[in-house]
Amino acid sequence: MSVLDLARAEIRTMKPYSSARAEFSGIGVALNANESPWGAAGAAAALNRYPEPQPPELVSRLAALYTVDENQVLVGRGSDEPIDLLVRAFCRAGQDSILICPPTFGMYAVAARVQDAAILEVPLNREFHVDPGAVLARIGARTRLVFLCTPNNPTGASIDIDVIEALLIALQGRSVVVVDEAYLEFAERPSALTLLARHDNLVVLRTLSKAHALAAARVGVLIAQANVVELLRRIIAPYPLPAPSVAAALAALGDGALLQMRDRVRHLRAERERLRIVLSDSLPVVAVLPSEANFLCVRWRDGASMYGRLLAAGIVVRDVSRYPGLQDCLRLSIGTPEQNDALLRVVADAAGGH
Ligand SMILES: *Cc1c(COP(=O)(O)O)cnc(C)c1O
Questions:
Q1: pTM to 2 decimals?
Q2: Ligand 1 proximity of 3 Cβ (cutoff 6 Å)
Q3: Which protein residue's CA is at the shortest distance from atom 6 of ligand 1?
Q4: Are strands 97-100 and 143-149 parallel, antiparallel or unpaired?
Q5: Mean pLDDT, 10 residues at a time, over the chain (354 residues)?
Q6: Which end of the chain has the lower number of beta carbons within 10 A, N or C?
């Protein structure tokens, strides 16, 4: 059985939209896409032509970065677009379901609601780890996608690669396992991509938004076996990536830029550890959850009042107290040393006021 048997039959058989660029993108006199023959007045670069649907140079650099084949790569508008495409390709509205392990990233459930797919929830255990036995017990005959986020947003813990592989094996022929590695650069762990050759039901999500510092460019990457990528290419928007985003991504993937990225990641990890140690010893803090990402999830004696104090000092953090198990928790992104110091001063002042 092929993993494509899990996908919606009508997506497998539909004839995709064929854009002018997809049909012909050679050089010559391009009179095939109803574009303006002139560049826009005032535009910094020529933007009058439609971009490549999947820019070959970008796909090839991403394939090299993640050491996979080019036909295993799909580039989209952030990770949000691949998440949406997966739910639409694999879940029949009103019939199929996805499985998530809350508290986790909110977009999986949003994409499922838009598609009218049911959402099965298997909460993380008390240490905020995925419970693979509970996941397998909860999977239904129509659970098409299992979303695993590692390191997890908003808690920060990673999932052991052995746990991911055990789930891939147990769910072979039943569900696709989507491993969201948006923060993997900040963890010292192997990627689930090392499992791709052996498991056709694995999909990995990566992004340039976090470690690569390109959140505004909206470049997300889905990596899977070639037949899954081909399926999703059928339903992705014809020109998902604006040309300026592609140019920014190519610049960020140059050798020098990648060295700087890795350097900044090391620096950020050191700051994360410094903050963790100071905060763990602070009076207003109940606990700092172990994090392998570029943020810390912190439980406070009084989360709402700390949120207000930080805001009054001009520091905005994420209130995650509405998530199950995260009452009184705030998620703090690791900033520059100066920004982190400003945050620690507010916490110290609050301790003095106790
Ligand atoms: C930030 C984040 C992403 C990245 O989203 P983009 O759309 O690529 O910017 C993906 N998954 C998780 C869990 C995130 O926190």
A1: 0.96
A2: no
A3: 78
A4: parallel
A5: 93 84 75 90 88 96 98 97 98 98 97 98 96 97 98 98 98 98 97 97 98 98 97 94 97 97 98 98 97 98 97 98 96 98 97 72
A6: C
